[in-house]
Amino acid sequence: MISKVIPADSVYHTCRYICNKPGAEVLITDGVREHDFRLMAEDFIRQQQLRPGKEKAFFHGIVSFHPSERPSNEMLQTIAGQYLQRLGIVNTQYSIVKHTDKSHLHLHIVANMIDNDGKVIKDNYIGLLGKKVAQQLTQEYKLIPAIKKEIAITNLENMNELEASRYKIYMAIAELLPKCSTMETLVTRLQKQGIDTQFKYKGQTQEIQGISFKMDKFSFKGSQVDRKFSFSGLQKALSQGINEKVDKEPKQQEAALQVQNPKQDFHKILSLSKHHSKKLTTANTALEKASDVLNKMNKVFEELLKSEETQENLSYNFSQEAYLRKKRKKQHKHKR
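RESULT FIELD:
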């Protein structure tokens, strides 16, 4: 169940629309006549004249249900009554009309924002409040929540031209986005489907602030197509797509190594194990031999570097005694 509040600038045209739709059924009214939309509009206007200066004196809300849901008229009246009460629209005129012209059943709820005592009913943030109330009622009456757009059950033929274009743009982006890694790629592929992309820049700089999409004569901001299709939302989705591709690569490599034929792969693994075991044994043997050679070389170096503690093997000319004798001779010649 979802809620949507739309402008009701002309209560006459609003009443004509909700009452004259094929299959329209007036479920309940309060303070207005229901058998003729003209009389209904006159009753609304008569009470609105209690506060003639009040702009936007009429509320028009649409409450839509999932296509698979067909609540009884009694339940629809109860839900609509709770909807108005929680919005604070009480003690006033209203009309609740059921429409079945689309694949999903929906209610049109029109109410006077000038109450029966001539007081103005507050409408601050009423659109946002309507969505929250719809979520509450969905849980309480165990209805199907509106989590995402369900493209498969969307009937474009029943939409007006504006809404149909918006949904076509939504479907195109939803289909192409997972296949694109950059914004440039997405823009190019959308253009091939007749959708032009326009960027909004910050002042005179090249910093992009927003994005919009144009199809035929209609243009929509990215967030109007869907909240996650704002410029920042698209950038985040593209970034996540790249990260997911990077994350998948090791998993795909790992999956390629997974066992396809357990018996055959076991024998391969066993054969490889024996082969590597032989290589390892050979390497260990070579390492042991190299270690023995290194130890022998170390011993040789130790012997060569060891300081001589005796002079038995030295010639007389290099001995300490010969050195001292030569020194005494030099001193004796110097004294003469």
